[in-house]
From TrEMBL:
Domain of life according to the entry: Bacteria
Species in which this protein is naturally found: Longilinea arvoryzae
SUPFAM superfamilies xref list: MoeA C-terminal domain-like (SSF63867), MoeA N-terminal region -like (SSF63882), Molybdenum cofactor biosynthesis proteins (SSF53218)
Protein name: Molybdopterin molybdenumtransferase
GO biological process, one term: Mo-molybdopterin cofactor biosynthetic process
Family statement: Belongs to the MoeA family.
Keyword Metal-binding: yes
The reaction(s) this protein catalyses: adenylyl-molybdopterin + molybdate = Mo-molybdopterin + AMP + H(+)
Required co-factors: Mg(2+)
EC number(s) stated in the UniProt entry for this protein: 2.10.1.1
Length: 411
């Protein structure tokens, strides 16, 4: 197997790929907010209303004019005349004049004239219609002001933001029940290899069941794409060409697995090269696992050739397939990946100049979280299934020492 001539660091390889993709706005579909979690909003959304819409109490207690309570204490209470009770879900039917108070519940609307709420615990009924104030309250204490959360017209969601449960709740609070989101990009998945059979077939000796189509489809779904499993291609140039050409017509991104290294029977790169300009942009990335990775663009459509080994395919899909899906969705605000800080349980060696991703198990100990590396082989999918996440060893390090503090990227 010939050596690759030039291995790009993964970060640079990704820049080359993204830089060669057109910057098109994704097609848009309208959705009810109940079905929109994890989708990417297509346009800026400005608030039609203020939130909260009116001044509200944050506690159960008495609406007061703060000045009426100044100096009050348990030994020297102030006395206020109770003039009413604020109904939930309706406007108070009274205004507060000096020396007056009204019973109010958490979330109730402050009556005009009130500027604070005394907590129930700091009050006492002196006699019917009169309460004792056992503590002074400051102006605005226990009050939410109209517009404190969101002002009318404020930008609440920028186009390109992925909707999380909190944003869905915010939209609901504003009465926005339908949103325009980016359509899920269709991601064609082509596995290859004469030895690979579908999972519902009992393999003969020499055959193995397809792992990559399913693990990749799951990764694509989780990232917000629409996986399109297009079967297993035999190791023949004509079959590669037919399948890739059709996949490029029907999909927004095509991911191929296996056939990515440099041996004569490895057909992925030569097929991509024939499918449109500019063709193969990167063949070989300085990373372990996953060196024989291919990145290409054919007439505006991205094509990614992943190594056949299932662990490598997953790690590399995380580095390249996921960001391309983000690009196709028009994702703008890239939130950091979920990581857990931990200390390494052992020394980890690595080759200088190459980036490594090592599967680790996370163990909670009395001394904190420990990352325990798994001695994996990139063909063994359960060496990844047993892991909680990956530790990244940068290119300039020759490894990481025991007890090094690491950020484990959850998988
Ligand atoms: N002489 C050398 N041989 C290899 C090298 C090397 O540098 N010199 N690199 C190794 C590395 S690292 C990788 S990764 C693989 C890359 O191989 P390919 O991407 O060309 O893929 P294949 O050779 O077809 O398959 C590799 C391995 O994965 C299995 N496989 C393939 N597809 C699937 C699937 N859908 N589900 C489950 N398993 C799959 C396949 O049977 C092979 O065992 O090359 C190494 N060799
Ligand atoms: O680079 Mo291979 O992908 O290590 O198994």
């Amino acid at each position: 197997m010939p050596e690759f001539l030039e291995l790009l660091p993964p970060g640079e390889a990704l820049k080359v790929l993204l830089g060669a993709l057109p910057h098109r706005k994704p097609p848009v579909e309208g959705l009810d907010i109940g079905a929109a979690v994890d989708r990417v909003i297509a346009q800026d959304i400005h608030s039609p209303d203020a939130l909260p819409p009116f001044d509200r109490s944050t506690v159960d207690g008495y609406a007061v004019r703060a000045a009426d309570t100044f100096g009050a204490s348990e030994t020297l209470p102030a006395y206020l005349r109770q003039v009413g009770e604020v109904p939930m879900g309706a406007k108070p039917e009274f205004d507060l004049l000096p020396g007056e108070t009204g019973l109010i519940h958490t979330g109730g609307m402050l009556p005009a004239g009130a500027d604070a709420v005394l907590m129930l615990e700091n009050s006492q009924v002196a006699r019917p219609g009169e309460i004792e104030v056992l503590r002074s309250v400051a102006q605005n204490e226990n009050v939410l002001h109209a517009g404190e959360d969101v002002a009318v017209g404020e930008l609440i969601l920028a186009g390109g933001t992925r909707l999380r449960p909190a944003e869905i709740g915010g939209l609901s609070a504003l009465g926005i029940t339908r949103v325009d989101v980016a359509c899920k990009p269709r991601v064609g998945i082509l596995s290859s290899g004469d030895e690979v059979v579908p999972p519902d077939v009992r393999p003969q000796y020499g055959q193995i069941r397809d792992v990559n189509s399913y693990s990749l489809a799951a990764l694509v779904t989780r990232r917000g794409g629409m996986p399109d499993m297009r079967g297993i291609i035999p190791d023949q140039a004509a079959a590669f060409e037919t399948h890739l050409r059709k996949a490029l017509q029907e999909c927004d991104l095509v991911v191929m697995t296996a056939g990515s290294s440099a041996s004569t029977r490895d057909l992925t790169a030569q097929t991509i090269q024939q499918m449109g300009a500019p063709g193969v942009l990167v063949h070989g990335v300085n990373v372990k696992p996953g060196k024989p990775t291919i990145l290409g663009v054919c007439d505006g459509k991205p094509v990614i050739g992943l190594p056949g080994n299932p662990v490598s395919a997953m790690v590399i899909a995380g580095l390249f397939v996921s960001p391309v899906i983000d690009h196709l969705l028009g994702l703008q605000s890239n939130r950091p990946e979920a990581t857990v800080s931990a200390r390494l349980s052992i020394n980890l060696a690595s080759q200088a100049g190459r980036e490594d991703f090592v599967p680790v198990r996370l163990v909670q100990t009395d001394q904190g979280m420990v990352a325990d590396p798994i001695f994996y082989k990139s063909n063994l999918i359960f060496s990844l299934a047993r892991a909680d996440g990956l530790v990244h060893i940068p290119a300039d390090a020759t490894g990481l020492p025991v007890n090094a503090s690491v950020d484990v990227r959850l998988i």
